[in-house]
Every structure is written in structure tokens, then in C-alpha cells.
Amino acid sequence: MKMSTKGRYGLRAMLDIAANSRGDIVSVKSIAERQNISESYLEQVFSTLRKAAIVKSIKGAQGGYILADTPSNITVGQILRTLEGNLNIVDIDDRDNGVSREEKCINEYVWNRINESIHKVVDNITLEDLLNEYHKLKENSSVMYYI
Amino acid sequence: MKMSTKGRYGLRAMLDIAANSRGDIVSVKSIAERQNISESYLEQVFSTLRKAAIVKSIKGAQGGYILADTPSNITVGQILRTLEGNLNIVDIDDRDNGVSREEKCINEYVWNRINESIHKVVDNITLEDLLNEYHKLKENSSVMYYI
DNA sequence: AAAATAACTAACTAAAACAATAGGTTTACT
DNA sequence: AGTAAACCTATTGTTTTAGTTAGTTATTTT
């Protein structure tokens, strides 16, 4: 029941671009170094993000990635769904064991409530929200904050 | 990012006891048959639930399991945490890659919000709530409902 | 034009988690 | 004594995870 590294690294990487570039192109290598993530593994993550049109890529020397939209228009939900799937804690197909599709199992009530609560959180946090939160905490907190 | 069969089967089994016994002892075999789950696998689930004192066991012939408390005093959260762990989508230890314990990563904001939303849902649904929901749906719906 | 850079792709691999199965032992009822 | 059922431990096959490896392709820099 855990978020995998794809989702965790992906969110970190997207935040890294949003925070460290001012609209500039950022290479996977530089993100991987800052975030201490395997470069080739992170390339796979970006390949997925690009196919979902959340980032744009520029090939060749001095190439890299750039956000496909402003941080205020990119939600955590978009990023995590792209990398992790539908974000449902229980899939519809797994809900009913031996119970046919037309029939319902009362446990769905629980899974639906959990799923909805997750969707509600991730769809209402944008990259901009996180950047604002970051700057707020950085100023008001005694401990160091990182992206 | 999925709930495993332990949690899914466990919740189904607990509801099964709550619905099909009126305070009576229920054998794993009968639950396994009704719910179409492997009996020996379900035994492992009940072993965990018993150690967490959510159910009581009676050994020997005609033995079985019984809820350790009334359905109104058993939450979905108790059951799922026992079988799945802490129900956190991201563990504290996994949050900071290369970032020491005293330092903070802004992504925690997201994980904390998701974790809290899950806890809030599961801790506020009791077995009794589910039984009530079951009876309500059973009467008002055209499709069959199962535990 | 050549070299360098960086995205892009596919195939592979080690390790862990998952979902059981198997084969017993112990306890209590009939 | 026989049986039913909880209880316990080990093993197994499969899938997922988290990368690694080894390249190809496109663009810029020298």
C-alpha cells in the first residue's frame, strides 16, 4: 500500500524543475544530481511524464526538459496518476471475489471513500501550492527545508 | 499503491462474522466458503487479527472466531492497520532521499495530507456503519448486494 | 565535419513483496 | 477414541519494484 519510487521521484523532479529553472530547460543529469536519484532511472520517469505531455523535451546538447504548463496549472494528481496509475487503493476488478459484475459488495463503500479522499487531496494541490508552502516553511522554520 | 489481499479479505471476513453470526462462533472454514477465499490463507489473516485482539478464538471442535467487541466499537482502520501496517502511502523513512533526519523535504506536505485523509476515512467507519449501509442499499437498490 | 551532449529506447536483472500451499501440532468437543 | 477446528512454520511460484546496461538518435558546440 505504498507509493513507489516512480511517484516519489517524479514529484520531486517536477518540483525541482519548477523551483530551480525560471522557465529554463533543465537536464535530467542536473536533477538527478540535486535530488540524488539514479540518472537513468529518472530518465524512465521523464519518458513517462513526456508521453503524458506534462513536460516537454528538447533533444541534443544543452537540451533537457521543461514544464509543459505553469506550476499553477500542474496538479500533484496529474503527476502521480501518470506515474502510479489511477491512485485507487483497490481497483474495481479486485473488489468482488466471485461476485459478478452486476452485483455489489459492501466493501466498495470503504474503497470508494478512501479513493475519493485521495483524489480530493492530490487534485487540489498544484506545483505552485507546493512552492509557496516551501517558501513559507523555509522562512518560518528553524530546520532546513529542501525541495 | 494497492491494498493487498490481506486487508481486503480481512475486512470481508470481519463483516462476514458481524453479519452472519449473532454473537455466535464462526469457523474460518465457513467464512472461506461464503467469501470464496482460500481457507488456509484466511487462517493466517485471522491469526494476525487474533494477535491484535480484534477477534477472540475458541479452539477445538465447534470452535472458531468471534468479534472481540461490538461492531460499533471496531473500526475499519483497526482492521486494515493490523493487516496492512500503518496505512501511510509514504513512510517517514522513505521521504528524504539523501536528506538527513533533521532536515525536511517539502514533499512531506503531500504525503502527510494523503496519509491524514486516509486515516480520517478508515477511523470513522465502524463495522456497524457498514452493516447499516449494507441493509440500506439492499432495500433501496435493484442490484443484489453482498457482504 | 567531428566531438560532445543529452534525450530516447529496449532489454535485462537482483531483490523484495505478494498470494498462496503444504504439512504438520495442539486443543476441545462428541 | 475420533473428529473438528484453531494454530504454527516453512516453502513456493508469481509479480512488482527498482534499478542497470547498452545502446540509438537528435542537436549543439568546437
**So what's the oligomer here?**
homodimer
How much helix, percentage-wise, in residues of chain A?
A: 55-70%
Which pair has the most extensive contact?
A-B, 53 and 52 residues
Gyration radius over CA of chain A: 18 Å
Largest sheet of chain A: 2 strands, antiparallel
Strand order of the largest sheet of chain A: 1-2
Number of strands of chain A: 4
- In whole angstroms, the N-to-C terminal distance of chain A is 24 Å
Indicate the overall shape of chain A: globular
List low-pLDDT spans of chain A: none
Output mean pLDDT of chain A.
91
What is the percentage of strand-forming residues of chain A? Answer: 5-15%
Structural class by SSE content of chain A: mainly alpha
List keywords for this structure.
homodimer; DNA-binding; mainly alpha; 55% helix; two-stranded antiparallel sheet; 4 strands
How would you summarize what this structure contains?
The structure is a homodimer of 147-residue chains. Chain A is mainly alpha-helical.
Explain what the structure shows.
- Two copies of one chain form a homodimer.
- Chain A is mainly α and 147 residues long.
- Chain A is 55% helix and 8% strand.
- The first copy, chain A, has seven helices and four strands.
- Chain A has a two-stranded antiparallel sheet.
- In chain A, helix 1 (5-20) crosses helix 2 (28-35), helix 1 (5-20) crosses helix 7 (127-140) and helix 4 crosses helix 6 (107-123).
- The radius of gyration of chain A is 18 Å and the shape is globular.
- The model of chain A has no long low-confidence stretch (mean pLDDT 91).
- The interface between A and B is large, with 53 and 52 residues.
- The structure holds a DNA duplex (30 and 30 nucleotides).
